[in-house]
Amino acid sequence: MGKRRRRKMAAAISSANWAFVAAARRGGRPWGTIPLSCSSGPNTRKLVLYSKPGCCLCDGLKEKLQAAFSLSGPDSLHHVTLQVRDITTNPDWERAYQYEIPVLAKENSDGKEEILPRLSPRLSVEIIQKKLLAAFS
Predict the structure, then answer these.
(1) How far out from the chain centre does Cα 65 lie?
(2) Is residue 125 within 8 Å of 90, Cβ to Cβ?
(3) Percentage of the chain lying above the pLDDT 70 cut
(4) Phi, psi of 3, deg, nearest 5
(5) How far, in Å, CA of 93 to CA of 89, rounded?
(6) What is the mean pLDDT of residues 44-68?
(7) β strands within the chain, DSSP E
(8) Residue 47's pLDDT is what?
(9) Number of domains in the chain
(10) Which residue in 76, 78, 71, 67 sits closest to 41, CA to CA?
(11) Side-chain-facing half-sphere of 82: CA atoms under 13 Å
């Protein structure tokens, strides 16, 4: 990865982190339901990340998702909101995902969740962005 690309990714992560720091300062949970987009219309789609505290794979994916959501351009995820769910707060989630986290799911138009294929930790932010866009098209 080149210097320029690393700087771009670091800037994207830094700007995305600001939303989470601001939420924590307001007394909210930094990894709760946080829209990472500006739109909230009828075309808004929902992505759910099942995670738990202390999960390094989960933390790595959260960082990459933050960076992917902060990228602009024709492939931006401006119409998608991300909700992070702590599986330790719900026995059903914990039973279902305790050995699988991090788990990404998209909410379909009927309100049902569809589990998405696992994203490799080695994927670039740009590839993650493209895969998420493909999942919603």
Answers:
(1) 4
(2) no
(3) 69
(4) -60, -45
(5) 8
(6) 93
(7) 33-34, 45-51, 80-86, 103-107, 113-115
(8) 94
(9) 1
(10) 78
(11) 27
- The enclosing domain of 120 has a CATH number of 3.40.30.10
The 10s digit of each residue's pLDDT in 74-125 is 878 888 999 999 999 999 999 999 999 999 999 998 889 999 999 998 999 9
DSSP state, residue 104: E
Tokens in use for 129? 């962005």
**In the prediction, which pLDDT does 63 show?**
94
Q: Tokens for 125?
A: 């932010």
Q: How far apart are CA 72 and CA 88, in angstroms?
A: 33
Q: Which domain holds residue 62?
A: 3-135
Phi-psi region of 51 (alpha: psi -120 to 50; beta: other; left: phi over 0): beta
Task: pLDDT band for 1, please (50, 70, 90 cuts).
Answer: low
Contact (Cβ atoms closer than 8 angstroms) between residue 124 and residue 63: no
Find the range with the poorest average confidence among 3-17, 24-38, 102-116.
24-38
pTM: predicted TM-score of the whole model, two decimal places: 0.69
Question: Which candidate, 34, 7, 39, 6, places its Cα nearest to that of 18?
Answer: 34
Q: How far apart are the C-alpha atoms of 133 and 126, rounded to whole Å? A: 11
Residue 87 is which amino acid?
A: I
Within 13 Å and on the Cβ side, how many CA atoms surround 58? 20
